[in-house]
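Appendix B. Chain record.
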Amino acid sequence: MDTIDGVLLIDKGQDMTSHDVVAVARRTLNMKKIGHCGTLDPMATGLLILVVGKATKLSELLMSEDKEYTGTLTLGQTTNTQDAEGVVEEEKEVPDFSNEEIEAVFNKFQGDFYQTPPMVSAIKKDGVPLYKLARQGKEVKRDPRFVHVYTHRIDGIELPKVDFTVKCTKGFYVRTYAHDIGQELGCGAHLSRLRRTRSGRFDLEKAVTFEELKHGDRSEIVKKMLSLPDVSKIRGA
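C-alpha cells predicted for this chain:
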C-alpha cells in the first residue's frame, strides 16, 4: 500500500488517551509511522495534531508552538491531579466572589510567570514519569517552569464554576493554572473541563472527529490530511 506523508488534525473526544488516537489512526491508515504533537489528557477534548510518514520529522517544530484552550474551573475543591480525574483532597466553601474579584486574580496570571508542574504529569524524574511515582504515593520536588500567558478571557461565571479561554506557550499546564487561581482566591479549585482549540496556526476547522477516524474509509481520511506543502503554507514558513 502507498505510503502517505502529512498532518492529520483530530478533534479528540473525552475519556481516551492521545496514544489511543494514534493506535486507531495506524489501523485506519494502515501505517506504523504516525506520531502526535502535544499530549492531551484523557479528560481533555479538542485539537490533536497527528504527523504521518515524513511529517514525523516536523513533530518537535509543531509541538513548540503556542496553544489556545477553553476550560472550566470549579472552585471549592482541590484534587491530587488538579483536575476532575483526581481524588478530592480538600473542600472549602466558595465565597460569593464578584466578577471583578475573579478577574483580578486571572490578571495576576498574565504575561511571564513560573508554574510548578503537577505531580501527576508525564515529566520524568531520573527517567521515571512523575505520574508513576505519584501512584506509589511519592512526592518529589519539581522545578518551576517559566511560562507565558498571552491573553485570557473569562467567558462565564456561575459559581462555583468559571469558564475561560487562555492562549499560552507550550508546556503550560492548564490544570495547574486552575489550581493556582483557586489557591490565590483562597478556596481552592480544580480544572473540570478542557478543550484545545488551537495549536500554532492550526485550529479545529479542518479536524476529523475520532469517530470519523475510527469508522472512516482510508481514502476519505487521506483526502482530509494536510500535505507537507499545505503545512508550510499554513505556518507561513
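Further analysis of this model is presented in Appendix C.
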